Amino acid sequence: MSFTEEFGTRVTVVDHPMVQHKLAILRDEGTSSKQFRELVRELALFEGYEATRDLPLEDVRVKTPITEATCKMVQGKKLAIVPILRAGLGMVEGMLELMPAAKVGHLGMYRDETTHEPHEYYAKMPEDIASREVLVVDPMLATGGSAIAALHYLRKCGVKNLKLAVIVAAPEGIRAVLAADPEVQVFTCAIDQGMNEACYIVPGLGDAGDRIFGTK
Ligand SMILES: O=P(O)(O)OC[C@H]1O[C@H](OP(=O)(O)OP(=O)(O)O)[C@H](O)[C@@H]1O
Ligand SMILES: O=c1cc[nH]c(=O)[nH]1
Ligand SMILES: [Mg+2]
C-alpha cells in the first residue's frame, strides 16, 4: 500500500521540485550550519504556504489604477506557531514571514538518548491559545513521541484546530501521530524509509538541533 493510500488526506507531502532540491542540500553532511539554518527557514516558508491553503477568505473592494474590483483577502483568522525546542526554532522565521501576525508559543522538549522518550522542560503559550489555529513545527518526526506530547499538551490547553509541520518524517512517526490525535493534519517535505537502532531517521539528515545550532 502506498503512503497516499495509507495516510489519505491527513498527510500532505510538500514535494515541489524546489523543496526536493533544498532538502537534498539539507541532508548533505557537508552542508554548513549557516546554510542548514537558511534552508530550514526556506523549507518552513514553503510548508507554511501549503499548511495555510485552507484559510478562509473574504471579499474586499479594491480600487486599482484602472477600476474598482472585488478581490479576496485572508479573514482575520487568529493563528499561532508553536516550535518544539530546540530544532523547531529554525522553522519559526520562515513561518512568520508568511504569517506576520501569528503569535508564537514555545514548547521545550528533548528526547532521552537511551529510552527515546520525550521530556518536557519548558512551555510558554499565548494567553488565548485555545482560540487560535495552531501550527506545531519541528524539522524531525522520528518515533513521534515528541510531537505526540506536544499535541497532547495543546489539546489540554483547549486547542481545537491543530496542524503539524515537519521537514522529514519516518513512517512509524506519522502512524503514531495519526493514531494518537485523530484530527491533526500533518505536513512533511519527505517520508523516509524508517529509523535506525538509535531511532534516527534513515536516510534523514542527522540531528537537526545540533546541525542548526552547531552543537556537535
Ligand atoms: O519523534 P521523536 O522520536 O520524538 O524525535 C524527534 C525529536 O527529536 C529531536 O529533538 P531533540 O530531542 O534532539 O532535541 P533538540 O531539538 O533540542 O535537539 C527533533 O527535533 C524532535 O523534537
Ligand atoms: O533523525 C532524527 C531523529 C530525531 N531527531 C533528529 O534530530 N533527527
Ligand atoms: Mg536534537
From TrEMBL:
Pathway: Pyrimidine metabolism; UMP biosynthesis via salvage pathway; UMP from uracil: step 1/1. Its cofactor is Mg(2+). Its EC number is 2.4.2.9. It holds the Pfam family UPRTase. One of its GO terms (cellular component) is cytoplasm. InterPro entries: PRTase-like, PRTase_dom, Upp_B, UPRT, UPRTase/APRTase. Binds 1 Mg(2+) ion per subunit. The magnesium is bound as Mg-PRPP. Allosterically activated by GTP. It is an enzyme of class 2 (transferase). Uracil binds at I201, G206, D207, A208. It comes from the Bacteria. Gene3D superfamilies: 3.40.50.2020. GO terms for biological process: UMP salvage; uracil salvage. 5-phospho-alpha-D-ribose 1-diphosphate binds at R86, R111, D138, P139, M140, L141, A142, T143, G144, G145, S146, D207. Residues 13-215 form the Phosphoribosyltransferase domain. One of its GO terms (molecular function) is GTP binding. Keywords: Allosteric enzyme, Glycosyltransferase, GTP-binding, Magnesium, Nucleotide-binding, Transferase. It catalyses: UMP + diphosphate = 5-phospho-alpha-D-ribose 1-diphosphate + uracil. HAMAP family: Upp_B. Belongs to the UPRTase family. PANTHER family: ADENINE PHOSPHORIBOSYLTRANSFERASE, URACIL PHOSPHORIBOSYLTRANSFERASE, CHLOROPLASTIC. Catalyzes the conversion of uracil and 5-phospho-alpha-D-ribose 1-diphosphate (PRPP) to UMP and diphosphate. This is Uracil phosphoribosyltransferase.
